Amino acid sequence: MKLLKPAAFFSSLMLALSVQAETIYQTDFPDTIYTIPTDWSVVQGATGDETTSGFRIDGGGDFRYDAASSNGLALYVGSVTAGYTTSALGDFTISSAIRKSSSGATGIVARSNLAGDSFYTVRMFNSSALQIYRFDSGSPTLLGQASFSGGNYVVGETWTVVASFEGNTISAEVFNDSGASAATLEVTDSTYSSGYVGVRGQITSLWEDFAVTSIPEPATFAMILGVGGLGVAMVRRRRK
Asked: Residue 85 gets which letter from DSSP?
């Protein structure tokens, strides 16, 4: 059931606070069941349907990936807000509401090449940690990891990952199903400065929405993160 989404909340909050941030791209995947979302390209893993595992819109209206052992990666290759280039997105914030299996990794991808083998990913790993990885021609490097506080992820819950890419700094936060901050991370890496955005998952991964916004002013961005947990909590109460 699709009511108010955390990603929509963050976008609305930015507008309400009159910051110089704008929506670059946003979707809650309103596409036909068993199809690939419009302007998304599967570059790793299979494309699924009603009988085959892989990427697809599922019966609940979410973008889903499932596979027994392989990774799946899909990139957004369509148009974005004027003034930005899909293939060269550099500084921005991604927000995505996620559900997953108890094992494996599910997250977002940023600054990727079109082949989908060189990129950054911010992901929920198993049921216990937030991670930031860099992939170089398919070879992974762990840049940072933080264990969840206040309890592990429980299958069926929706957690929200928010990741900001600004220059050489990558910062990330994950909010649990109650809207509380479960983990934060910040790392510095200068390998990739721009590229495509997308999603990456293992085993069973679901993305309820996906939003890319420009970086707001520093002081206001801190305010957004400070009240973000409250906003996600409000969303959760409305959904239950």
From this structure: -
